[in-house]
Amino acid sequence: MPKLGLSISCSAILYALLINACTTMSNTKTDLPTLLEQATQNQIAPGLRYFKLDRGEMSGYFQLTSPVLSASDAEVLVDRLNKQLLVNNANNSSQSLEVKMLDLIEKSPEGTDLGKLVTISQFHSVTQAQDMQQDLAEKGFQLRASHSSQRSGGMGKQAISILKLVPSQYTGALRSFLAEQHISGVEKTSVIAKRNQGIAAVNGGFFAFNPSQGVIGDVAGIGVINGTLVSEAVAGRPALLIKNKPSLSVDILTNVQSHISLTVEEEVFHVDGINRLAGKIFNCGFDHPKVVAIHDYVCHKADEIIVYNHFFGGLNEVLNNSEFYFFVDENDAVYFNLANTSEALPKGHRLVVASGDPASKLTKHISPAVKAAITQRITSDSGELRLSKGMYLVNGGPTLLIDGKQPISQRSKQGWGVSNVDNATAAIDARDEISPASSTNNRVNFYQNWVLQRHPRTAVGVTETGDVYVVVVYGRDPFKSIGASITEMSELMLELGVQKAINLDGGGSSVMVVNGQITGKPSDKDGERAVAEALIFTANKKV
Fold first, then answer.
1. DSSP letter for each residue of 162-222
2. Would you say residue 435 has pLDDT above 80?
3. What CATH code is assigned to 62-156?
């Protein structure tokens, strides 16, 4: 009996160990979405893993593509191009080309047809396509060279870098850092990561990249750094919310609004912006008066109040172009002179700049004898957000997922609509292969090129259990990685089991850095692009 008891006990222990081992192996496997099971992975820190995934194959050909056209205009263009190609062939052209009329891959956010594209294909190299493009341009045809895999839905190669964060296991912090540590200026994501001892990083939200949009580096939407509001919202857009206290958590907010006011002698003034040049509102979207968001456009206002804090940087440019201004200290006391305007404001102090009608009104109220109180509120569909230390907000859009579904109908109010624009100036970065906005009547073409075509993208998603996926899809190189459309980024997030997701700045800005190394090939010819802010994972939890 004792021997039998010993045998049973040992068998039970072995059986239990075997079951436990199998369970652990099973949990390890099912812990990952199917998409990541074949990816190369590396644990950067407890609770933070990096995945490198290459999927799809290089496919397709180079082509020339028209702007978006009506069906009737497309038919006319097809006829004209076929006749022109017959002339070319008669002149001993050895190239066999085909003219096609294509439907756009998706409808508008409102569900209406967007039009047609006309293409000439198939060129064996981009040089051949560009030579034909130049020849046809001389004959009055406006076409651009592209690769067929840039059109979403077809074959193409994708190089994808993914960070998976399990907040409950991660012992570090996740923060947003500004380039050069203030609003004015840009730096490469890898440089920002190195300076702040980042073990992993990606680029952040949209920003002004040209003086016509304001100060280069101005965050183009909501921005909160360690609990301090550094940029006002583009009304109605989503935002990435990061909290490091009391514990790390990440969320996606929708319909974010900022409400800022200045009170002087019981009179309340609306504050239009924070840390940007007066009169220039990149991506528009404000409520005073109400103007919807318009991506890659600058809206202009003559009557504004702008507030600056220590995150802005040197003030000389602002002060030299200001109609009326004054300073406010940490006790709300007004003063008029700052010893060194080439440096940032002291912490807790603010500069108030007014133009137009607000300047005239404030002139009558402001003196060293009065107090000037500045108040602010941030709201979203989740309610009011109380800012606190360790909290960060990063602008972005469009929203990729809400409750596991694609909110395509919200794209218009977030700035990616197809309606004509008559109250703003186009401001599109030529480096990003988006057709220049030569008039205000081309938002359908912009939607096709920006939203529906494949480009480099950066996005963040959150699962139902609070796990976080940070994703970069490199692009604009059919031989290495073609990128993704906005809808394809939503679908990628669904494959990862994400419930909420937001698109961040993309194009040449898209990059991921892990342990000091860039994980793929940025799309700009000059390499990694300088950006306004970066999301940094640090091993140090202190914020």
1. EEEE-TTT--SEEEEEEGGGSSS--EEHHHHHHHTTEEEEEE-S-B--SGGGSSTT-BSS-
2. no
3. 3.30.70
Where residue 441 falls among pLDDT bands split at 50, 70, 90?
low
**What does DSSP say about strands 237-243 and 391-395: parallel, antiparallel, or unpaired?**
antiparallel
pLDDT digit string, tens, across residues 111-127: 999 999 999 999 989 99
State if pTM tops 0.85: yes
| Side-chain half-sphere exposure of 371, counting CA atoms within 13 A | 7
Give the C-alpha distances (Å, rounded to integers) separating 274 from 350, 393, 425, 467, 506: 10, 14, 21, 32, 24
Residues of CATH 3.30.70 domain(s) within the chain? 62-156
Q: What angle (nearest 5°) sits at the alpha carbon of residue 100, between those of residues 96 and 103?
A: 155
* pLDDT of the residue at 19: 35
The conformation of residue 154, written as its DSSP 8-state character, comes to S
Asked if pLDDT for residue 98 goes beyond 90, the answer is: yes
Tokens coding 354: 């007014």
Residue with tokens 């970069």: 472
Tell me the C-alpha distance between 290 and 297, whole Å: 16
> Dihedral sign, CA of 116, 136, 524, 205?
negative
And the tokens for 273? Answer: 């912006």
**Exposure string for 29-67, b = 16+ CB within 10 A, e = fewer:** eeebbebbeebeeeebbebbbbbbbeeeeeebebbbbbb
Strands 48-55 and 273-274: unpaired
Alpha-carbon distance of 262 to 305, in angstroms, equals 9
- CA-nearest of 272, 229, 501, 266 to 379 is 229
Question: How far apart are alpha carbons 451 and 304 in whole angstroms?
Answer: 32
Burial class (CB in 10 A: 0-12, 13-18, 19+), 293: buried
d(C-alpha 387, C-alpha 390), whole Å: 9
Q: What is the pLDDT of residues 463-483, one digit of tens each?
A: 999 999 999 999 999 999 999
